[in-house]
From TrEMBL, chain A:
UniProt key word Phosphoprotein: no
One Pfam family, short name: CoA_trans
NCBIfam families attached to this UniProt entry: pcaJ_scoB_fam
This protein's record includes keyword Transferase: yes
Protein's name according to its UniProt entry: Succinyl-CoA--3-ketoacid-CoA transferase
PROSITE patterns (alphabetical): COA_TRANSF_2 (PS01274)
UniProtKB/TrEMBL annotation, chain B:
UniProt xrefs under NCBIfam families: pcaI_scoA_fam (TIGR02429)
Keywords of this entry: Transferase
A Pfam family of this chain: CoA_trans
This protein's name: Succinyl-CoA--3-ketoacid-CoA transferase
Database matches in InterPro entries: 3-oxoacid_CoA-transf_A, CoA_trans_fam_I, CoA_transf_BS, NagB/RpiA_transferase-like
């Protein structure tokens, strides 16, 4: 079975380490915050100027001056700090954020990512995504493996305008956990009940399969 | 005005001198920390052909979005413009020029503009449409592109508190682009929720020194919320999305 959005988030959360500063993009990445293991501490960075993002506010706690990068009302965790946008991107561009999780339309075997524009259809802008992929060393892309019509999104070469070039090393889809190196996709794990053959079929770029591929554990 | 006192008493006075085809830098992220009354004053004045530099362009009926209906904006430099139907229509019809700029690069362009740095190299955007036509250079085996600074004829800023000299304090994430915008205007106009007497702000707590501020006005604010997300008060679990 393909993973649900929640399961994707849950699997990403297993990559979190104690003491990590983490930036979570909009959509599935945001859900990762719900699955932080009990025994570790992480601090969430929101690029609009908040380090230490807390949970959503109660109706009484809502504060128009306190939002996250998805423009949702949030709270601050104990030990949080706030700062301006230049400072926020100094953290990001300077490589101080330990893990970035973001979505994508396409990735390819050379670690390129397209996530911000579909010419003629969707032109909303890149927000902070270009800065995040250029500044972070440790990035996990979350996405669906293929379109509803079975068209692969893990390509030989991205067809949409790029958000970043050669910067993606790890991709978690609803079917597989994949590493990108030396111009190829490498299959690390598969979703429970999903066969290696299914994954190969839905991966356009070259996929290296070495030995037995374990199922993801939750 | 006397000495360092920056306080003006009307929005008309606050935006005096803004004329057609000028460049205006605006603070704010989404609808958070936007100079909403200064934007309303630009709408009232009917100034046209403006180039706006702002992270976003508001929504249809609030924030910078209100300047779209009378076609006051010629060009916008922004990182994300997705919340606005009229915006999309004008952009697709070619009536509005849009320069999409990565968010961190936009913040740095303003910061550099205010700090007298004409351009800077960044890895952001290398190999993407953002890099087209820009100088590229390699430092320590990594590619960078040259991005130019931005300054404005006006900067419009929202802060929380100020003293009469224009020393500013921002509140929570309403700070965002406002401090950079404040440095990058030839004329910087700031609206605030509270003006205190000089000496009442702790100098250690001032985010933007008054040297950057030309005009200061006391406003009242709607502070509209774009995405109202809550959790139930009796539980401690965050509710996803």
């Amino acid at each position: 079975m393909a993973l649900t959005r929640e399961q994707i988030a849950q699997r990403v959360a297993q990559e979190l380490k104690d003491g990590y500063y983490v930036n979570l993009g909009i959509g599935i990445p945001t859900l990762v915050a719900n699955y932080v293991p009990q025994d570790i501490e992480v601090m969430l960075q929101s690029e609009n100027g908040l380090l230490g993002m807390g949970q959503f506010p109660t109706e009484e706690e809502i504060d128009a001056d306190l939002i996250n990068a998805g423009k949702q009302t949030v709270t601050m965790a104990t030990g949080a700090s706030v700062f301006d946008s230049a400072e926020s991107f100094a953290m990001i561009r300077g490589g101080h954020v330990d893990l970035t999780v973001l979505g994508a339309f396409e990735v390819d075997v050379n670690g390129n990512i397209a996530s911000y524009m579909i010419p003629g259809k969707l032109i909303k802008g890149m927000g902070g995504a270009m800065d995040l992929v250029a500044g972070a060393d440790n990035i996990i892309v979350t996405m669906t493996h293929a379109s509803k019509h079975g068209v692969s999104k893990l390509l030989n070469s991205c067809s949409l305008p790029l958000t970043g070039k050669g910067c993606i090393k790890k991709v978690l889809t609803d079917l597989a956990f994949i590493e990108i190196k030396e111009g190829k996709f490498h299959l690390l794990e598969r979703a429970p009940g999903v066969s290696v053959e299914e994954i190969i079929k839905l991966t356009e770029g070259e996929l290296v399969v070495t030995g037995d591929i374990p199922e993801m554990k939750f | 005005m006397a000495g360092f006192d920056k306080v003006v008493s009307s929005y008309e006075e606050a935006m005096a001198g803004l004329t057609d085809n000028m460049t205006v830098i605006a603070g704010g992220f989404g609808l958070c920390g936007i100079p909403e009354n200064l934007i309303s004053e630009i709408k009232r004045k009917g100034t046209k052909g403006l180039t706006l530099v702002s992270n976003n362009c508001g929504v249809d009926d609030f924030g910078l979005g209100v300047l779209l209906s009378d076609r006051q904006i010629k060009k916008i430099v922004a990182s994300y413009v997705g919340e606005n139907a009229e915006f999309e229509r004008q952009m697709m019809a070619g009536e509005l020029e849009v320069e999409l700029t990565p968010q961190g690069t936009l913040a740095e362009k303003m910061r550099a503009g205010g700090a007298g740095i004409p351009a800077f190299y960044t890895a952001t955007g290398v190999g993407t449409p953002v890099a087209e036509g820009k100088d590229e250079r390699t430092f320590n085996d990594r590619q960078y592109i040259l991005e130019e600074a931005i300054t404005g004829d006006f900067a419009i800023v929202k802060a929380w508190k100020a003293d009469r000299y224009g020393n500013l304090v921002f509140r929570k994430t309403a700070r965002n682009f406002n401090p950079m915008a404040a440095t990058a205007g030839k004329i910087t106009v700031v609206e605030v929720e509270e003006i205190v007497e000089v000496g009442e702000l702790d100098p250690d707590q001032i985010h933007t020194p008054g040297i950057y501020v030309d005009r200061l006005i006391l406003g009242t604010f709607e502070k509209r919320i774009e995405q109202r997300t809550t959790r139930p008060s009796d539980k401690h679990e965050a509710k996803g999305e």
